[in-house]
């Protein structure tokens, strides 16, 4: 279980994230929604430890998350972060090794994920020779390649066509069966379709949180108000 407790981040005078509490449970997919600038990316960076909080804490299974805990997490950052001039298979194996996988395991797993996305015959192509949709597939493969213990995905479906979204969902549901998954999205139909839980952020604060079924039963679900305006 991955959780945030009164997580807060200031940038100068501006409070971007304000005492955020959230819990992402194993085997459940949690959607993280909110308008532009609500603080989703800043919160996710703190969960991953790439940005320190001004105050508050991130916990993994109830105790403060360590760097070693986070090495097991899979992260798809907003700014992406793959290497455009690196071959696909090499790149995925590299990420697996960074997270502690052995050499042959890393290679096998990279091959398996490329096959899943029908990119097996492009294993030796450079990333920047792929379409943007295919680059995005490789990006999610990079988050999954070390069999993560938790997944934090910043807008993983943005810019994808419906076919690519479905392929990614199938992979997520297959790979992330027992682990906590948090992803941010502006696509509310998608959140309603695949998430178990939703956390709604506005102005850096959690304004609503609960199961999709509970929130959807409200006459005007609060996440629709916050995101659509
Ligand atoms: P989006 O959906 O547009 O990605 P978001 O919900 O992810 O938005 P954040 O990117 O977390 O929101 O930004 C929250 C607020 O914090 C914004 O006002 C943003 O300008 C500010 N902010 C984020 N990072 C920094 C930074 N490094 N320095 C100063 N301000 C920042």
Automatic annotation (TrEMBL):
GO terms for molecular function: ATP binding. Keywords: ATP-binding, Nucleotide-binding, Transport. It comes from the Bacteria. Signal peptide: none annotated. Residues 2-228 form the ABC transporter domain. Belongs to the ABC transporter superfamily. This is ABC-2 type transport system ATP-binding protein. It comes from Nocardioides salarius.
């Amino acid at each position: 279980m991955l959780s945030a407790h009164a997580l807060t981040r200031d940038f100068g005078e501006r409070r971007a994230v304000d005492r955020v509490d959230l819990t992402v449970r194993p085997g459940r997919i949690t959607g993280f929604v909110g308008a532009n600038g609500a603080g989703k990316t800043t919160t996710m960076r703190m969960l991953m430890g790439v940005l320190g909080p001004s105050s508050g804490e991130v916990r993994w299974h109830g105790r403060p998350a360590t760097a070693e805990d986070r090495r097991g997490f899979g992260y798809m950052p907003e700014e992406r972060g793959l290497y455009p001039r690196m071959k696909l298979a090499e790149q995925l194996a590299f990420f697996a090794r960074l997270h502690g996988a052995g050499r042959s395991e890393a290679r096998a797993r990279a091959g398996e994920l490329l096959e899943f996305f029908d990119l097996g015959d492009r294993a030796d192509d450079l990333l920047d020779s792929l379409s943007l949709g295919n680059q995005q597939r490789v990006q999610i493969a990079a988050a999954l390649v070390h069999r993560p213990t938790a997944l934090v995905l910043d807008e993983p479906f943005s810019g994808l066509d419906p076919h690519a979204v479905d392929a990614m969902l199938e992979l997520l549901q297959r790979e992330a069966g027992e682990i906590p998954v948090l992803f941010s999205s502006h696509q509310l139909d998608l959140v309603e379709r695949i998430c178990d839980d939703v956390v709604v952020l506005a102005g850096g604060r959690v304004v609503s949180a609960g199961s999709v079924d509970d929130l959807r039963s409200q006459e005007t679900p609060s996440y629709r108000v916050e995101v659509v305006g």
